[in-house]
Amino acid sequence: MADNINEVRLDKWLWAARFYKTRSIAKAMIEGGKVHYNGQRAKTSKIVEVGATIKLRQGNDEKEVVVTALSDQRRGAPEAQLLYQETEKSIQEREKSPLPVKQMRCRCHTQIVAQIKKSDGI
């Protein structure tokens, strides 16, 4: 997967690892301070190293990953997932975060409908 690559820019690695759909979105997120490399804000041209920790925002989710391989080519999701390992702390934080409002409303509505059907004998 590493394709014998020694250096990859941060924006290109984030794009290749499929965190962002385009390099320009990756660049905007980095410049906006939404991406931290080894605990510090980084520039788009930062060279990524294996073993580095990257903390990023992806939609409503905040993820922390450890770089396991380098690539400057965007490939399928199964191959892209080989480029990083999400930390246990990151997974736990995302799992305990509240659901988005729309999903909460949908679940409440489903429960209310089920209760009404049950009380009406349907």
List the helices and strands and how they pair.
Blueprint: H1 10-16, H2 23-31, E1 35-37, E2 40-41, E3 53-58, E4 61-67, H3 77-80, E5 84-86, H4 88-96, H5 101-120
Antiparallel strand pairs: 1-2, 1-3, 3-4, 4-5
Pfam family, one: S4
GO molecular function, one term: RNA binding
Domain RNA-binding S4: 8-71
Describe this structure as you would to a colleague.
The chain is an alpha+beta fold and 122 residues long. It has helices spanning 10-16, 23-31, 77-80, 88-96, 101-120, and strands at 35-37, 40-41, 53-58, 61-67, 84-86. Helix 1 (10-16) packs across helix 2 (23-31). The chain starts with 9 loop residues before the first helix and ends with a helix. This is Heat shock-like protein 15. InterPro entries: S4_RNA-bd, S4_RNA-bd_sf. GO terms for molecular function: RNA binding.
The structure class reads alpha+beta
- Name of the CATH superfamily of the largest domain: RNA-binding S4 domain
Shape: elongated
Number of domains: 2
Spatial extent as radius of gyration = 19 Å
N-to-C series of helices and strands? HHEEEEHEHH
CATH architecture classification of the largest domain: Roll
Head-to-tail CA distance between termini: 55 Å
Share in β-strands: 15-25%
Largest sheet: 5 strands, antiparallel
CATH class of the largest domain: Alpha Beta
How many helical stretches? 5
Q: What's the pLDDT, averaged over the residues?
A: 88
Count of β-strands: 5
Helix proportion of residues, in percent? 40-55%
The CATH topology of the largest domain comes to: Structural Genomics Hypothetical 15.5 Kd Protein In mrcA-pckA Intergenic Region, Chain A
| Sheet with most strands: strand arrangement | 2-1-3-4-5
Unreliable spans = none
